[in-house]
Amino acid sequence: MDESTARLAEQLKNNPAMLRSLMQSRDGQMLMQMLTQGDHGAGLQQAVQAAARGNTAQMTQMVQRIMQSPDGAALIERINKAVQK
């Protein structure tokens, strides 16, 4: 995960209202679709549980997979910009 994505994750963790707003947005919905694609959310659920215990490796891998596609990278960039406003 690059520095800007790590900063985004930290901002969202510390600001539940911002996170709620993001998840209700079109980009947030697209992100959820990408994160749950293929296994109906089982991988995301495991990654969230591991992150809650302090192990963010699975979540980092999921975000890196998304960012490997042009559409996923553009989505993460839009989310980063929206959160910085």
- How much of the sequence lies in strands comes to under 5%
The biggest sheet, with number of strands, parallel, antiparallel or mixed sense and barrel status, is: none
Number of extended strands? 0
Q: State the order of secondary-structure elements, H for helix, E for strand.
A: HHHHHH
Return Rg in Å.
Answer: 12 Å
Residue stretches low in confidence (pLDDT < 50, at least 5 long) are: none
Quaternary structure? single chain
pLDDT averaged over residues? 86
Structural class category: mainly alpha
* Individual helix count: 6
Number of domains: 1
- Give the overall shape, derived from the CA principal axes: globular
Distance between the termini: 21 Å
**Roughly what percent helix?**
over 70%
Could you please describe the fold and organization of this structure?
By secondary structure, the chain is an all-alpha fold. The protein has one domain (3-84). It has 6 helices and no strands. It has helices spanning 3-14, 16-24, 26-36, 42-52, 57-67, 70-84. α4 packs across α5 (57-67). The longest helix has 15 residues, at 70-84. The chain is globular. The protein starts with a helix and ends with a helix. The model has no long low-confidence stretch (mean pLDDT 86).
